[in-house]
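Morning run. Coffee first, then this:
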Amino acid sequence: MSNTDIEVAHNYHEQTKHSYRSIRSDTHSLDFSNRPVPFKTYPGLKPIPLPNPWEDIEITALSAVSAVTSPTKEERIPSLNDLARLLYYSAGIIRQRNYPGGTLMFRAASCTGALYEVELYVVCGDLPELPAGIYHFSPKDFALYQLREGDYRAVVAQASGEEPHVVAAPVLVLSTGTYWRNAWKYRARTYRHFGWDNGTIVAHLLAMGSALQLPTQVVLGFVDKELNQLLDLDIQREVTLSIVSVGTTTQKASAPSTKVEVLELPTLPLSEREVDYPEMRTLHSATALLSEKEVTRWQGQTSIQPLPAPQGPVWKLDPDPERAPDSIEKVIRRRGSSRQFEQTPISLQEFSTLLYCSAQGISADFLEPAGVLLNDWYLIVNAVEDLPSGAYVLHREGWLLELLKEGDFRNEAGFLGLEQRLPADASANVFFLADLEAILKQLGNRGYRAAQLEAGILGGKLYLTAYAQRLGATGLTFYDDAVVEFFSPHAKGKSAIFLMALGHGQKGLS
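And here it is:
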């Protein structure tokens, strides 16, 4: 099984589709007595407390989200306080709520089912107030736990095929996905959630990096085995998903003086028992890159067919990136996931700003040249002032909305969103669709990771731009083939990847 055996990704995607029939024939129920804990705990290690990042930078959320940082030759080395900000505002605990069954700790970035299956690790050289090492970030006590002492950035750089941003970075943030923590509820579909939930965290990392003037880059090209071993992962349960390089330094890391030894550090179990869904591990194994040469061949220009020129009526977006003054930190602290929307319109400028600031592009090794995206933006507009209700597609070139069909599609939006009220009541819904056939032909099975991650990042950006404007947002699942059918013939041959509902969220229900 290899990255080029793309039938594996095709089969997984088909097997994990939701349909009207599959939902009604599903007998799965949740065993709350066996719900996994949302934290990874190393009982034998001592915490290194992080400083409280309470003072805001005062960079607006809209400017931080829409910025795409560029490489620089100047030194940009994060301080310990900068690192604390990055971690807190991407995966830290921003609020708690008490329920009869216990306390829920809500994190900075959205996560499906509030199950928080994504872990963050830091690989760094010597920083002000933090020695070189490999650290696990613990949101529960807002601390780092050192797994290895010394500078291992060269190991990550080698695994990435000497990717320039990785080579030049003083800090590397590695994300991993823990199968069981999300599969408890979502079962084999969890591998899609890896992309969505890691993507929202990465969106926050990119925004905070921009606010701190630290260049950032998303990297998916790396030898999986080397990074899994470096992080001491039990790959039957947890696997490396992505790298985000942070900052720039001219002091490149040298190879560590000792080989990467197996640590087998003990961790506490997530729950009394785990249920195995081998389809996820099969797919992940098929997405793996096995050598530095394979990584180098994998990287390169993204060959994506552009959207055809508009054939129907078009509306030009009217964004105002200066309309919301709140800082990125303030917006993240109040961000939630809307549980109910008011059926009231948002203004065309609010809607335009949402799309414009979220769709500028992502700095990533699988997205070249700059600005290209794997996912296309299809929309159902229910209530936007000065915009007819109907189905649209976004043309980022020219920032135009093309009307595909006009009409009141609230009921259809609700049905497509797994028959939930949220997309029916929302002012607008963004459906991310991708040409998986073309993506897999170019990027192999790893392109499936890339498409899901990108959609999660874009969804994370929509969350932030919505809450910056005092609106609400929530990510949702969907009836796969019904979504494509609704937007066809324009979307024929594409696959549904993710759904975001946007509008006026009812107060107290986020």
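DSSP finds 18 helices and 17 strands in the chain. Good start to the day.
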